[in-house]
Each structure stands twice: as structure tokens, then as C-alpha cells.
Amino acid sequence: MEGDCLSCMKYLMFIFNFFIFLGGSFLLGVGVWVLVDPMGFRDIVAANPLLFTGVYVILAMGSMLFLLGFLGCCGAIRENKCLLLFFFMLILFIFLAELAAAILAFLFREHLTREYFSRELKRHYQGHNNTDVFTSTWNAIMTTFDCCGVSGPEDFEESLFRLLSPSKMVPEACCQRNSYPGDVSVEQCVSGSMVFRHNKGCYSAVVDYFETYIYTAGALAIVVLTIELFAMVFAMCLFRGIQ
């Protein structure tokens, strides 16, 4: 009976990790394709810092899942105690890292306030500067979410941006692109016209956007943590059951 249970666990673990391996291979393939694509898709992604960062996140996740799936499949089907132990240690490390990230997010939650982001924006945002990571990231956020500043355009008053560009009230990233095309609308926007700019703050825009996915994200996090726990238990049971 014990041998049948061990054999069932072995093949279940192999199938489970085989799907993880396929998922990791797919993410790796997508990430590599975007980086080496000769049709110019890489240039489109590189123009948006959020998308460019996302490509490397996909590559990192794909590599991690690829390695996990490979170790789990080989360790289970070959009944290799060394691979199973390495698989267990890797999942334990990921689990502890996720737990540490959750604890740090709770401890430093005061740094995610509207006032904190407004203060940082006033101190570091430069306007149209693609070489500065902070500035390019904020430009990407304002363009993606059709917003301006943290609470609104007034965040740029008495800021580094106004010192560098005293003739502009808001950066070009705050300007509406679809409704009023042309240089005239951009000039009126940066000079202070409310008609040609986005007046909603990015803090509210981002919160409203992610609020619809908060329950899905929470459920997904619980599912992932549960899978990791079961994977560690299966790996250790199989490790102990191998003679």
C-alpha cells in the first residue's frame, strides 16, 4: 500500500512539474522573442519603461519556473534524492522570500501614501528626461493611466520640474494625445490650459485600476502559496520514501 501511494505521488509530482516546466518555457520564449525580435517590437517596448521592465520580469519568472519544473520532473521520475532536495530548498527559498516581501510591505506601508509620492515627485521629477529612471517611470505612468501628478497638476507647483522648466506648468506627459492632436494643443497644455491636459491624479487612477483586480490577486496569491506548500510536502515525502 505504501509503495502504491509513493508511486502515485511520484507521477502526480511529475505531471504537476511538467506543466510548470511548459509554462516556464513559454514565458522564456516570449521574453527572448521580444528582446531579439527583428520586426521592431523591441523598440516599442523599450520606449515604455514599464513594458521594458516587464520583459525582464517575464524572463526571470520563466527561468525560475523552467528550473523548478526541470528539477521536479527529473527528481520525481528518476527518484533522485539530490534533485528533490534541491527542488525543496528552492521552493522554500521562494516561499520565504514572498513571506518577507509581504512583511516588508506591511512594515513600510506608510511609504505608499499619497503624501510620500507627492513629496518624491516634487524633489526628483525632471520632465522630459529619458536617462533618469525616476522621471521616465513617472512619464510612463502618466501616459499609461491618462493622469497628471500624484493628486493632480498642482503637484508640479514649487517642484524641481518648475525650476528646470519655468515656462511650463505641467510636463508633456500630462497632455491629452487623442482628442487634441498637434503641437498647438501641447503648447497650451504645458502653459496651463485645463482643456488640453489630464486633471486626474495618478494615485487615484492607479488605485481605481487595481482595485478591480484586488480580490483576484489575493485569491491568486493564496493559490500560489498553497501550491508551494503542497509541492514542498510532496517533495519531502517522496525524498523520505526513496530507499
TrEMBL record:
Which Pfam families does the UniProt record give?
Answer: Tetraspanin
Location(s), subcellular:
Membrane
Name the SUPFAM superfamilies for this protein: Tetraspanin (SSF48652)
InterPro entries in the record: Tetraspanin/Peripherin (IPR018499), Tetraspanin_animals (IPR000301), Tetraspanin_CS (IPR018503), Tetraspanin_EC2_sf (IPR008952)
Q: What's its membrane topology?
A: Multi-pass membrane protein
Q: Name one GO cellular component term.
A: plasma membrane
Alphabetically sorted, this entry's keywords are:
Glycoprotein, Membrane, Transmembrane, Transmembrane helix
Q: Where are the transmembrane segments?
A: 12-36, 56-77, 84-108, 213-239
Where does the source fall among the domains of life? Answer: Eukaryota
Similarity comment text for this entry: Belongs to the tetraspanin (TM4SF) family.
* Database matches in PANTHER family: TETRASPANIN
Q: What is this protein called?
A: Tetraspanin
The gene name on file is: LOC116067297
